[in-house]
């Protein structure tokens, strides 16, 4: 299975639209994952073929690529991030829920 299978399972389980998801990748095995999510971000050190399909190319992982992409997307620097909204929506057992999904999908 490719990584998009896990994303499909997580979004179905939590009732999240794929258009609200973000994926990060750096190699060709991340291609389907980046194209199935609402926003696909290639790391600065990603393969050229991944950079072509990405919605945004951030800096290298060693140059704070994920953090820089979060700033670019407005996830960081806002009063309340998208991650905080998800945790508010599922506050009681967020970790337990993640484990249940992981066990179901067998990631």
Strand percentage lies at 5-15%
Structural class: mainly alpha
The main sheet orders its strands as 1-2-3
Low-confidence stretches: 79-107
Q: Give me the number of helical elements.
A: 6
Distance between the termini: 9 Å
Largest sheet: 3 strands, parallel
Tell the overall outline.
globular
Radius of gyration: 14 Å
Write up what this structure looks like:
- 50% of the residues lie in helices and 9% in strands.
- The protein contains 6 helices and 3 strands; from the N terminus they run αβαβαβααα.
- The protein has helices spanning 3-14, 31-36, 48-53, 65-73, 82-89, 94-105, and strands at 22-25, 39-42, 56-57.
- It has a 3-stranded parallel β-sheet.
- The model is unreliable at 79-107 (pLDDT under 50).
Write a concise keyword list for the protein shown above.
107 residues, 3 strands, disordered C terminus, three-stranded parallel sheet, mainly alpha, globular
Summarize the structure.
By secondary structure, the protein is mainly alpha-helical. The chain has helices spanning 3-14, 31-36, 48-53, 65-73, 82-89, 94-105, and strands at residues 22-25, 39-42, 56-57. It has a three-stranded parallel β-sheet with strand order 1-2-3.
């Amino acid at each position: 299975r490719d990584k998009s299978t896990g994303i499909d399972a997580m979004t179905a389980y939590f009732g999240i639209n794929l258009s609200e998801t973000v994926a990060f990748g750096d190699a060709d095995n991340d291609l389907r994952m980046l194209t199935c999510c609402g926003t696909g971000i290639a790391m600065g050190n990603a393969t050229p073929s991944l950079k072509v399909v990405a919605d945004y190319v951030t800096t290298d992982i060693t140059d704070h690529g994920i953090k820089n992409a979060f700033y670019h997307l407005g996830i960081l620097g806002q009063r309340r991030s998208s991650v905080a909204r998800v945790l508010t929506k599922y506050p009681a057992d967020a970790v337990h829920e993640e484990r249940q999904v992981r066990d179901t999908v067998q990631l």
